[in-house]
Specification:
The complex is a heterodimer of chains A (244) and B (99). Chain A is mainly alpha-helical and 244 residues long. Chain A is built from six helices and no strands. Chain A is 76% helix and 0% strand. In chain B, strands 1-3-2 form a three-stranded antiparallel β-sheet. The mean pLDDT of chain B is 86. At the A-B interface, helix 1, helix 4, helix 5 and helix 6 of A face helix 1, strand 1, helix 2, helix 3 and helix 4 of B.
Chain lengths: 244, 99
């Protein structure tokens, strides 16, 4: 990043601060220090549990099908490449499901932390009302701690999202190959067994859901990267002001 | 200073600012600010570390301190300045994803 870019971004941070100061009256609840899991977050929490679990179970069914039903045509030697070809979508979707589940676990833990954060208000009041040299052993959790824990998680998930997006490209190519094979254009010599109708429909739905999820994830991290950059600039500005 | 160190320092700074703002809002005894001992407890820091940050914050104009008598003892009470409040509000805003 050049010096002029840094200067531009620093000016943007200052501009945002001034913009915020001028509009703070429009956002009176900013420092209420009461966090709530919004309805959209609750929905995301539920979906981030249901979708990976459903896809995972579907892939178990796919795996059973692949093992039980040999591909059409004469029996072919079970080579490594054939095994990979037949189980590729399964591996891809299981990987994505695991990552979805990781996100769900974090969100669940996050919800508990928010509850703890909100419930410590009375403890804080009790502490400051007490003698100036006395306090119990309560461990408080601050908004900053919650924010940075969230940031740490998001940075990890960002790396995973890059991996899943790369895997998804392979997966999309596999889907395209399957479609071409359906319409009679063979790409490789490995015939793909046609699953039962139920599995076929469920797989199609799962593929659409995953494609939508990938797009949403890409948009989310694109926005989140901008936010992270703002935070990093803000941190540097604060450290410079405090001469730490 | 590495970015991870920026993050650790900023975490402490924002926690300190939050502690003072909460005390000013929640104080029911009209005692504006928060006693040093309580602020250190809220931040969960060692006293020496906390004092280092308090000095830096005061020098930068984020917080102010004053001495008050408490019986025969003198205690230090911290309050937040408009600059400190602005810095903290910006941090809360960006992390609350308010556009």
């Amino acid at each position: 990043m050049t010096n002029s870019d840094q200067e531009t971004q620093k000016n943007q941070v200052e501009k945002d601060s001034k913009d915020f100061s001028s509009t703070k009256n429009d956002q009176p609840n900013l420092l209420n220090y009461r966090l709530s899991f919004s309805d959209s977050q609750k929905r995301f929490l539920i979906l981030s549990a249901i979708i990976p679990l459903a896809i995972f179970l579907l892939q178990i069914a796919n795996l059973v099908f692949v093992i039980v039903n040999p591909p059409p045509g004469p029996t072919q030697e079970l080579t490594f490449s054939r095994i990979v070809d037949m189980t590729a979508p399964l591996i891809i979707m299981i990987t994505m499901s695991i990552l979805g589940l990781l996100n769900f676990i974090f969100l669940l833990s996050w919800k508990r932390k928010i509850t703890r954060y909100n419930n410590q208000k009375q403890l804080f009041k009790k502490m400051i009302a007490g003698a100036p040299n006395e306090s119990d052993d309560t461990e408080f959790i601050s908004f900053a701690q919650l924010s940075y824990q969230n940031l740490k998680h998001m940075k990890m998930m960002r790396i995973f999202s890059y991996i899943t997006n790369t895997i998804s490209i392979v997966y999309i190519l596999w889907i395209i190959r399957g479609i071409l094979a359906e319409i009679g254009i063979a790409i490789s010599g490995v015939p793909i067994p046609r699953p039962p109708l139920v599995l076929y429909v469920l797989n199609t739905i799962a593929q659409i859901v995953l494609l939508v999820y990938i797009v949403i994830q890409w948009m989310f991290f694109h926005k989140w990267n901008k936010k992270l950059l703002k935070i990093e600039l803000f941190e540097k500005q604060t450290i410079d002001e405090l001469e730490l | 200073m590495k970015s991870s160190q920026y993050r650790s320092a900023n975490l402490i700074i924002q926690t300190i600012l939050e502690g003072i703002i909460r005390a000013e809002r929640d104080d029911s005894i009209l005692k504006k600010g928060i006693v040093k001992y309580h602020l250190v407890r809220y931040c969960g820091l060692k006293t020496t570390t906390a004092e280092k940050y308090f000095l830096k914050l005061e020098k930068a104009g984020y917080i102010q301190s004053r001495e008050e008598s408490w019986g025969e003892r003198t205690i230090i009470v911290y309050t937040i300045t408009p600059l400190g409040r602005e810095r903290h509000e910006w941090f809360v805003r960006i992390n609350s994803e308010i556009e």
